[in-house]
Amino acid sequence: MRRLWLLFAQTVTVCLGILFIVATLRPDWLHTSPVAAPPLPQASATAEVSYARAVALATPAVVNIYTSKQVRVPVVPLPRDPDLNRLFRELPGFSRRKRTTNLGSGVIVSASGYVLTNYHVIEAADSIQVALSDGRQARAKLVGADPDSDLAVLKIDLPRLSAITFSVDHQVKVGDVVLAIGNPFGVGQTTTMGIVSALGRNRLGINIYENFIQTDAAINPGNSGGALIDTTGRLVGINTAIYSENGGSLGIGFAIPAAAAHKIMDQIIATGSVTRGWLGIEPQDITPDLARAFNLRQDDGVIIASVLKNGPAGRAGIRVGDIVLKLNGQVVYDTIGFLNQIAPLPPRQEVTLTLLRGGRMLEIAVQVGVRPRITKP
After folding, report:
1. Residue ranges of the PDZ domain (predicted)?
2. pTM score, two decimals?
3. Is residue 22 part of a domain?
């Protein structure tokens, strides 16, 4: 019996060894018929991400703008001393006239030929030339401009113009994908992509009225006045400025929102200029030190730093040191917000200012005036 058990054990060991060798060297011998391997799990199909349709819709409406003007340049370097500098400039023959050129971008906003761009693109230009994406060119005339918001409207006379679609109803959000189209460095029409980095940027010292969209889509010199569009090809902003230490894009660009640009554009087309409300006061933000000095429990509102003697506020009895808390019942938070509350008010409309004067609350009615146009020297 023991002998039989040893024989059985040896036989099983030999069979297992043979099976191991065959499974290692020729595993196909173990299958009498081929069996298809189970399919590997497939990743869920995703649509290819492309913004070609949006670019194709917007590109025909984005134009390149070339301007030229005559400037006087000194024939020799000017001294650094301000008095000597001024004296040298008054000498006859010290300077000569030179023609300079500038470039930028613009957006066709109407099939009738209106083009929206930045004011600084066409400022003081003697001639303005517009080049379309299809190769056509035309001389443009200036319809009107608004230096306070850095916007201008041009007019060209060409047939079959493609106008861009404004995105005035769509609420732009931080994180939205946007595309910037323009003519950076004069290399030709170019599209860059990024996202909306922030909204409501102000206090940048670029314009008087600032409410910028910030984006990291590459914006470079020559992009000014070009289109910032969403992924459907609608205009969400007019590219205006960049933050840069070397003149190139650092991923911080600013665009005027389309809704604000549309309102200003309509006024310029209708009247040639923009009319804004004005009270004839200089507001100042309430700092923590001012809040303590006036025993304020909050830092909302603005303090009146100066009052124009014959301005609307001066005639109504507004005084220096008054603290404006509300305008027509709407809370005044800071200087920028206050100016933006006043700007859209129509002239001769009466508004109510809620003030704090000497610890007492007052309500004073003021008739809105027209903001004077400030001309650059």
Report:
1. 268-332
2. 0.71
3. no
